[in-house]
Every structure is written in C-alpha cells, then in structure tokens.
Design goal:
The complex is a heterodimer of chains A (about 260) and B (about 325). By secondary structure, chain A is an all-alpha fold. Chain A contains eleven helices and no strands. Chain B is α/β, with parallel strands linked by helices and about 325 residues long. The model of chain B is unreliable at about 310-320 (pLDDT under 50). Classes of the chains: A mainly alpha (about 260), B alpha/beta (about 325). The interface of A and B includes residues 13, 20, 90 and 98 of A.
C-alpha cells in the first residue's frame, strides 16, 4: 500500500476508536448537549422578549446561531481526548508505531463529525420543540447541514491544537472556553449586530463566526445570503488548513507528560 | 560476535538548562535483558524516548537493531516495541480492540491483527477479559495488556520503561515471569527500573545511570564485587565478648572486621565452608552466637557506593 493509503487506513482505524467512545462514555455527549439546550431555553424564554429581530421570530433567529455554537464546541471532545491520551502515555505509544504522523489527529477530527451529527439532530429536535421552523427548500437545508458539519470539522482542528498545547484535560477545558466563548458571543448568533455599540460592530461583522451564523440562517430560514455562505466556507477550509498544519507540527514534537 | 541490538555513543539531551543525558555510551548485545538502573530523574526515560524515536537527541548517535534513531526513524519504528511507565492502553476499548487497533496501526491485515490479538490475550492470561472495557481492568491486567500491545509486531528489540512501577508484589512477580519467557524467545529487552531487585533478577547486564551519565556497567555479580565480597555477620549472645569474637574469627578474614551494636561483621576470604568453620571457631573460644549469616552485597550497596546516595532517595521531581 502507498503512504497515502496507509495514512487513510490509520485515520479510519483511529476514527473508529473515537466513535466507539460516544456509546461507551455517553456522559461526555450529554455534557456537551445540555449546555446548548439550556441556552436555547434561556434565550427563547428569558432574553428573547427583550431582543428585537425585525422581520424574523426570535426563535428562528436564534436556533441557527446556537447550532453553529454547538458545532464549534463539539470539537471539544477532540481536545479532551488528546489531552487524556497525552496524560496516559497513549500518544507516546502511537508515536512509537510505524503509523502516519497525522492519523491520530485526522482520526479524532473525523470521529467528531459523527458526534456533531448526533448533536445536530438533538439541537434541531429541541429547536422544533420550542417553535423553530425551516422556511427554505430541501436543497438549501441539506447545504446548511453540510456547512454546519464543515464548521464543526474546522473547529475540531482548533481544539486538536488546544488539546496538544494544554498541560492537562482541565487546562484544555479552560483554554477552550475562555478563548472561544467570548468570540461566539461577539457575533450575530444571539443578537443582531446592529444592536451593539458602534465600536464593536466592525469586530462582530468581521468575526468568522458571524459569517457562519449568517450563512446557516440564510440556508435554514431564508435571510439574505449575500457573500456570507462563501465566506463561511472559505473560513472553514482556511481554519482546517492552518490549524491542521499547526496541530500536526505540534504532534510531531510533543512528548507525553 | 553479532552486531549489538542497541549501541549509543555520546548521547546527549538537554531540556533548557537541565542536562538530562550528558554523553551516554551503551552497548547491548542481542538476546539479553539489559537493565538501566537509576533513581527518578537520572535520565532513564529520556534515553528510552530517544531510542524509540520519540525524542531527537541533541548530540551523539544511537543505533537500534542496526538502524539510526534519527535517519532511519520510520523504519526503526517497525522493529521496536515500547511499554511505558503508564499502561498506555485505551480505557474505552476492550482488551481485544486495543490489541487489534495496535496491530492495524502496524499495518497488519485485519485478519492477522485479530489473530495476533487473540493469541496475545491468551498468552497474557487475559482471554476471559478480552471483551471487557479496559477501564474495568486491574492495574496488573492493564500492564499485561500494555506489554502485549508492545509485542503485537513481534519486535526484535523491546523497551520496558519501569514496567512494574506501582504494581502489587504478586503482579510484579507474574510480570517478571512473562519478561523472562520473552527473552528466552530471543527478544532483546532494555529494561529501566529503579528497583534493584528487579534488575538483579532479570538483567544479564546492568548500567547504573545517575544525573544523565553511566557511572558503572557490568553483570550484576561484577557490580556487586566492586563493593567488596561477602561478609559474615555474627549476632553475639553477649555483646561484651565482641573483641574476643573478632579475635577468634580472625583466620576467616584478611579484611578489617568490625562490630556494630551486638553484631560482629567479618569480611570473608572465601565463602566455602565459612559458616561451619565460624561455628567451630566460636565454639572452641566459648562464645555464644544467636545468629550467624553470610551476607552478599546487593545492588543497593552498589548504588550507595557509586552515587553516595541510596536509590530510593532520588530526586522526587517528575521523570522527563
């Protein structure tokens, strides 16, 4: 088999390992689902009445945003898993094997796509329960789902780097939330950017997270798309490339602790 | 003589200002257990990491199974097995799935990977637990599975980094038996340990390493000989008779006898017949002895003699 063939088979072997983790450690998925579900309920029933979204029910405004946020944080399973693998010496074992240097990461990030599908289904279910409805056709909805999974995949690579850099699973938790959480809020996910102070609006408008939320909204509830879908896709692919290179570089030079 | 399984020359590694290895020369013949002995922080794990291609050396050269650890790293990984300080197995997989995964990552065909997984589980007495998740395993079972994982590709050179640290005495003995069986099959084993009895029991050759340098090397018996031979220890019934006891036992020694508490310590000229002769000599002089024993120096004595500090009181900082 060629090097590429081996890299692919190594990736699949490790993706299978990552997927098996979901049924065997179900509390992990529960942990990552409870928070966005709670956000849906809080924003729809507590803050929603105070937030004005002209031309759109707040629930239709909110759900695409919260789903993007939950896709972004779905990659967190990768950060935790890698930090644990490092701590337990598994990374040392993998690095001593004649396997592809990228497979430990590409396997995990691929498995995250599986986790994200489950999360996406749960989030849409909760969305429907609180009154969210699609207002576009099937092709656009499918394109939206594809885009959301791409966004999730991109951030899995961000979290892969976080997991390798953090000194422990707890630290990777702290890094992930303190860095990414504010970024997801200074965006169009929860409130219209126009309601923010003037100095903050350019920040929010140029936040890739805003592009991703706007794109999901356009594909699910038919808000004007503009260039948002393309920007979201380009950002996602760019993140995969940049963080993929950084994470693999870091993996090659990392040692167990 | 065949080519050595492991050969290093002037191996150096620093972490910032901390010198982990300060020029290590090792030569390990094929087919033996070689013990790398030293306290925490001595550089044992760093040496293993370099020899298994996990870390690049800062200086010097190292060849394992005839392959350079830097230039031939990729090919070398096919020829070594590593079992580390922690059982590096996936808690959320079963024992069988762990071994199958490692086999697949060695690029064995699926059927072969599965067959080897089953055979190894059998050999390591884990067949009954094969389909249980590893997180339900005991510490000893995890270590056995870890060792099995290191053997999936049947590597000619095996690295065991403190394989029994943290194990209970029974699991330790069982693991020692396993390692001995392996070596009888021709595998070369480099074993690091801070337990002197472990090195004594398993290794044919030992290098003592302290602060990143090899300070002694040889067969266990040779190392023990460097701190002197055997000595006779006589616990006296009446401590007041100490001086007379030493006088009576003088024919047995050409060393410097001494008395510690109520025990006379007499370095022996020769082991053969020493006890019978001592009994006769003491009896003739009318000296009562409660206990009489010939003490062979242990590797503890070797370590203390070489480093000036006991093995157990090594620095408690994390092993790098």
């Amino acid at each position: 088999m060629s090097d590429l063939g081996y890299a692919l088979s190594d990736t699949l072997v490790l993706a299978k390992r990552g997927l098996l983790r979901i049924p065997r450690q179900p509390d992990l998925l529960v942990g990552f689902t409870v928070q966005p579900v709670m956000f849906v309920l809080l924003f729809v029933y507590v803050f929603g009445g105070a937030i004005s979204t002209p031309g759109l029910d707040y629930v239709d405004f909110l759900i695409p945003g919260i789903i993007v946020q939950s896709m972004v944080f779905g990659g967190f399973v990768t950060a935790l898993g890698l930090a644990e693998d490092l701590k337990k010496g598994l990374i040392d074992r993998f690095r001593s094997l004649p396997m592809s240097r990228a497979a430990v990461l590409s396997g995990r990030t691929l498995a995250d796509v599986g986790t994200n599908v489950v999360q996406l289904a749960i989030m849409l279910g909760v969305g429907f329960a609180v009154g969210f409805r699609f207002s576009t056709g099937v092709p656009r909805i499918l394109a939206g789902i594809g885009l959301l999974l791409l966004v999730g995949y991109a951030f899995s690579w961000v979290f892969a780097l976080i997991g390798l850099v953090a000194s422990s699973p707890e630290a990777s938790n702290a890094y992930g939330f303190t860095i990414l959480f504010p970024v997801t809020f200074v965006s169009s996910a929860f409130v219209p950017v126009r309601s923010m102070p003037g100095w903050l609006q350019p920040v929010a408008n140029n936040n890739p997270f805003t592009n991703m939320v706007n794109a999901a909204r356009a594909l699910f509830v038919g808000t004007p798309a503009g260039n948002q879908i393309w920007l979201a896709a380009v950002w996602s692919v760019g993140i995969v490339v940049v963080f993929g290179v950084l994470a693999v570089w870091r993996y090659r030079h990392t040692v167990g602790r | 003589m065949t080519a050595p399984a492991i050969e290093t020359e002037g191996l150096r590694k620093c972490y910032g200002d901390v010198v982990a290895l300060a020029g290590v020369d090792l030569r390990v013949e094929a087919g033996i257990v070689f013990g790398l002995l030293g306290p925490n922080g001595a550089g044992k794990t760093t040496a293993v990491r370099i020899l298994t291609t996990l870390l690049p050396p800062d200086g010097g050269t190292a060849r394992v199974a005839g392959l350079d650890v830097v230039r031939d790293a990729a090919r070398l990984r096919e020829r070594v097995g590593l079992a580390g300080q922690y059982a590096a197995v996936d808690e959320n997989l079963t024992g069988f799935e762990n071994l199958e995964m490692v086999g697949r990552l060695y690029h064995l065909p699926r059927r072969e990977a599965r067959a080897r997984a089953r055979r190894l589980l059998d050999e390591f007495d884990l067949s009954d637990a094969a389909s249980r998740l590893v997180r339900t395993y005991s510490g000893g079972m995890r270590r056995r599975l870890d060792l099995a994982a290191a053997l999936v590709a049947r590597p000619p050179v095996l690295f065991l980094d403190e394989p029994t640290t943290g194990l209970d005495p029974r699991s330790r003995l069982a693991l020692w038996d396993t390692i001995e069986t392996l070596v009888s099959g021709g595998t070369t084993v480099l074993l690091t340990t801070q337990y002197l009895d472990e090195a004594d029991r398993l290794a044919q050759r030992i290098a003592v390493i302290d602060r990143g340098a090899v300070i002694a090397e040889g067969a266990p018996a040779e190392l023990k000989a460097t701190v002197g031979g055997e000595s006779l220890e006589v616990r006296l019934a009446d401590p007041a008779q100490a001086a007379r006891a030493l006088e009576a036992l003088a024919p047995l020694t050409d060393g410097e006898p001494s008395v510690l508490d109520a025990t006379a310590v007499v370095p022996l000229r020769g082991r053969t017949g020493a006890i019978a002769e001592a009994v006769r000599l003491l009896d003739r002089a009318g000296i009562g002895a409660d206990d009489l024993v010939v003490r062979t120096p242990t590797l503890d004595d070797v370590f203390l003699g070489l480093t000036g500090h006991a093995a157990e009181t090594g620095e408690e900082e994390d092993e790098r």
